[in-house]
Design a protein that fits this description.
With 171 residues, this protein is of the alpha+beta class. It contains 6 helices and 5 strands. β4 and β5 form a beta hairpin.
């Protein structure tokens, strides 16, 4: 499991954290920090659904940047890591004002979508769905903006969702 920065299934997370030392529980029990004494690395296990049934694990020492998350999603050989990276992009979108959408769409469009093998098509589907690129909702701050600015932002997300759907249609 060397080289991984994220784990995206409960089984893999539970297996991996079994060898780590719990540092602290945060966010009212929704997240836990761990330390890997063997490698000197810190990890964060966090819940990705509101019912607490599904969690991911992320390397946090230092945490992957937006660009690294995009690269992980596009290159990891582990589909659960692809899912975790794309989900993390979405989760960090609001609190950190992470506006990854256009960069991710551009990188996907650089691929030869019509000639991908089945596993690569599955990767792209996972990325588009987990990062919620087909969601037409305006996710930018609206407070303090004029109506025309809000409308422009809403139009951006509408066009982004259309582009994401075109990608899914191609594959």
């Amino acid at each position: 499991m060397a080289g991984r920065k994220l784990f995206g299934t409960n089984v893999l997370v539970d297996e991996f954290v079994g060898n780590l030392t719990t540092i602290e529980t945060i966010d009212g029990g929704w997240a836990t920090k761990y330390f890997d004494e063997q490698n000197g690395q810190y990890w964060l296990k966090y819940v990705v659904d509101e019912k607490g049934f599904f969690h991911h694990l992320m390397f946090i020492s230092p945490a992957p940047t937006t660009g690294e998350l995009i690269d992980i999603a596009l290159t990891s050989v582990h589909l659960d890591e692809v899912l975790a990276a794309a989900t993390r992009l979405h989760l960090e979108e609001q609190p950190q004002q992470n506006q990854f959408w256009q960069d991710l769409i551009n990188k996907i469009n650089q691929l030869d979508l019509e000639h991908l093998d089945q596993s690569e098509k599955e990767r792209i589907k996972i990325i588009v769905h987990a990062s919620q690129l087909t969601d037409k909702v305006n996710r930018r701050e609206i407070l303090g903006k004029s109506y025309s600015e809000i409308l422009k932002d809403a139009q951006f997300f509408n066009l982004l969702a259309i582009e994401a759907q075109k990608i899914l249609d191609k594959i």
